[in-house]
Predict the structure of Threonine synthase.
Amino acid sequence: MQYYSLNNHALKVSFTTAVVQGLAPDRGLYFPESLPAPDLHFIQALEKYSDQEIAYQVIAPFVGDDIPETVLKQIISDTLSFPFPVNEVEPNVYALELFHGPTLAFKDVGARFMAGCLGYLLRNDQRPVTVLVATSGDTGGAVAAGFHQVPGINVVILYPSGKVSTLQEKQLTTLGGNIRALEVQGSFDDCQRMVKSAFLDAALQQHVLLTSANSINVARWLPQMFYYFLAVKQLKALGKQNPVFSVPSGNFGNICAGILASILGLPIAHFIAATNVNDTVPRYLENGDYKPSAPIATLSNAMDVAEPSNFVRVLQLFEQNFPALQAKLSGYAFDDTATVQAMEAMYKNNGYLLDPHGAVGYLGLKKYLALHPETTGVFLETAHPVKFADTAPHALKAHIHIPARVQALYDLPKQSIPLPATDEALKAWLLQQ
Ligand SMILES: *Cc1c(COP(=O)(O)O)cnc(C)c1O
């Protein structure tokens, strides 16, 4: 399988190059040159296959010959080592719980899959390999856990001092070994700028092979298709067909993978992009005008994105056909007041705890189901409520259960390296390694 840059369809690279580079040299996102659908009989008989077999069938054509079958199967089984249950929270409304992984966020799947791929693809490279990533919270933890103890790869995470939650900081700073956390005396934007400037620094690249693990990497994007296949499999066992999926969206990687799954033949009736007040895409779907505004901070902060980086891939999946896009995708936006009300009402009526991201997904689903009442609806619960316990409504706080593996983190010492928020400081630090 080859991948082309969305900025230049003639620029084609292998899966390996797409994963190692992350972004094409012309700053375009990589996109598969064909969309190989699994066998129709396979999709019709999903319930007969194990989760691992389904994942292998779906992803193998996108990887091609770059990773041998046995290695890819091992990567998949390491990736899918926790459950992805669908949970009926109201009649015909299902929560697809994606938070049972090591860092309690759905990003664990993409990060673990990418770590496995990169570990294999770079096994013969003599240079030290460093995965460099800036985080505002969730990504860093998932990447750290995914790459922990992968041989030959070091991970350097930049995070803004004092601006991530206590739990998130613990997830970044307590693993040790090949994971190092740079505590930047600045903002998340500073961290992102410093990482970008390191990637563009040719002298630095000679010294160390730098690669990124952000959400535009194809090895993080594509395995997210698994959630949708595994959900459809479970719903089939319950006699439910052709569901709609509401996806709480920020950078639009997750929903883009779902749309790809449906294009490959997975029966999904419709998608709902549920956002917080960072509503660039819902507005675009309504009036065809793509006008990002300045990002606004909300309770569902992993979705505080005004310019969703993966949306160009969504457009490409519909071959830039706006009516086709509108027919398959609706967009709804909700503010923090609605989000908190949904969390409170859900707990009161159904005894189910939502996190703020899942709450936005639930609200989007309800809005769509009001117009299409006969449909089976699924919303993605993308984080465990404990991750956002700091800001949870008062009445719910006491009910949020802290999983044992999270509790243990609070007792581990933080190990971070303070760093001034300048490009030169990062470069000097990397050169010393
Ligand atoms: C990253 C994240 C999202 C947004 O996912 P995208 O793929 O960027 O749209 C939603 N919820 C949580 C908890 C996240 O961490």
About this structure: The first strand starts at residue 2 and ends at 5.
